[in-house]
Design goal:
Helices cover 73% and strands 0% of the residues. By secondary structure, it is mainly α. The chain has helices at residues 2-6, 15-36, 43-74, 76-98, 108-120, 141-153, 157-183. Helix 2 packs antiparallel against helix 3 (43-74), helix 2 (15-36) packs across helix 6 (141-153) and helix 6 crosses helix 7.
Length: 186
């Protein structure tokens, strides 16, 4: 409902971007609160932010429910297409990952240690896993998103590490497809 209202100039009223924007909003609220010291990056706060986002979405839905119902009935094929794109790309990348889930070569140990730092962190920046006593100042919002999802769902780090690339790839694919339609409409 929030994307529908904010992105109504797009042909799909933001439906293609809504899943990604919802995850970004949740991770951003968790990160911002912990970074500013207002909250902690814990499951309890992530649940609270999820409830807050859900409540605000509910209010937006109440305000435009007839328009939303009409849109969904008229665009069911488009909505199913977006969901299938997300599911197929996610499943493809998860299948590839399933053939090589080990975390012991290349940059996987470093990535896994970063993910664990974010999963353990309650404040930001988290501790640097390779340099004791230092803080991890790194390009890390992807880890924040994965850690937020992992903390919220209580997924173990090894499973989360292998689910994240497929999920992020699906988000990127759908957003890229969405952007390409906006830039070069037919």
């Amino acid at each position: 409902p929030l994307c529908f209202q904010a992105l109504k100039n797009l042909p799909d009223h933001g439906f293609g971007a809504s899943k990604t924007l919802g995850m970004l909003a949740l991770a951003y609220l968790g990160w911002l609160g912990a970074m500013l010291g207002w909250t902690t990056f814990t499951r309890a706060w992530l649940v609270a932010f999820t409830i807050l986002l859900g409540f605000v979405s509910y209010l937006a839905w109440q305000k435009q429910k007839d328009e939303l119902r009409t849109f969904f009935h008229q665009n069911l094929r488009l909505i199913v297409c977006w969901e299938l794109c997300f599911a197929i790309v996610g499943a493809t990348f998860l299948t590839i990952r399933a053939y090589n889930p080990e975390i012991y070569w290349g940059e996987k140990p470093m990535d896994f240690s970063f993910l664990n730092s974010f999963l353990r962190a309650e404040t930001f920046p988290p501790e640097e896993p390779w340099f004791a006593g230092a803080r991890l100042n790194y390009y890390c919002f992807g880890f924040v998103m994965a850690a937020a999802a992992g903390k919220l769902t209580q997924t173990t780090p090894g499973v989360l590490y292998n689910l994240a690339p497929g999920t992020i790839s699906a988000h990127v694919f759908v957003l890229t497809l969405r952007i390409s339609q906006v830039v070069s409409p037919r």
